[in-house]
Specification:
Layout: H1 7-10, H2 13-16, E1 27-30, E2 36-37, E3 41-43, E4 53-56, E5 65-72, E6 86-95, E7 104-107, E8 118-127, H3 145-151, E9 159-166
Parallel strand pairs: 3-9
Antiparallel strand pairs: 1-2, 1-4, 5-6, 5-8, 6-7, 8-9
Length: 176
């Protein structure tokens, strides 16, 4: 598949939230009922009330560690995203070959509750150089994944995915 047709590029996740990168690690995200979430999946808030199960590829030698960042790229609405990026979840020190349950939850999972428009929820995975001491962000709104990555020497993501989320009875398009 051509890079310019990758779902993260077409959806503008690369550009709005992330720099261009090459995936080097497998990232698998599942709903609480076990269904896999794919890039561009369309989900309702009731489907993501509980935190997703996130599985990270690689060997489980506990020497390779990862950080997971989950943000809403369109808060509070796609037509006026003045809170973007809204931080929904932050987990550090996740050993390769395991899941987020083995990491340190720095910011607890907050389920998406979009009130208008279709929101892109982005999960970005970064490889750490060593165990991280990360201070809790002072607020969830206006988080910046790129700045966070630079501040903690994480570099480019090693994997990422996104899904679309819109209000329970909503049917709208990209813009609110």
């Amino acid at each position: 598949m051509a890079i310019d047709r990758h779902p993260l590029v077409v959806s503008r996740v690369v550009g709005d939230v992330l720099e261009p990168f090459t995936a080097t690690t497998e990232l698998r995200v599942l709903l609480s009922d076990g269904r896999v979430i794919y890039n561009g999946s369309s989900l309702r808030p009731s489907q993501v009330v509980g935190r997703p199960r996130v599985e990270i590829g690689g060997s489980s030698d506990f020497r390779t560690l990862y950080t997971l960042v989950m943000v809403d790229a369109d808060a509070p609405s796609p037509s006026n995203p003045h809170f973007k990026e809204y931080l929904h979840w932050l987990v550090t020190d996740i050993p390769g070959g395991t899941g987020v349950g083995f990491g340190t939850e720095v910011v607890s999972y907050e389920s998406p509750r979009p009130s208008m428009g279709i929101h892109r929820l982005v999960l970005a995975l970064f490889r750490q150089e060593s165990r991280q001491m990360v201070s809790v962000p002072t607020r969830r709104q206006n988080f910046n994944t790129r700045e966070f990555s630079q501040l903690h020497n994480l570099g480019l993501p090693v994997a990422a995915m996104y899904y679309n989320c819109h209000r329970e009875n909503g049917t709208g398009g990209r813009r609110a």
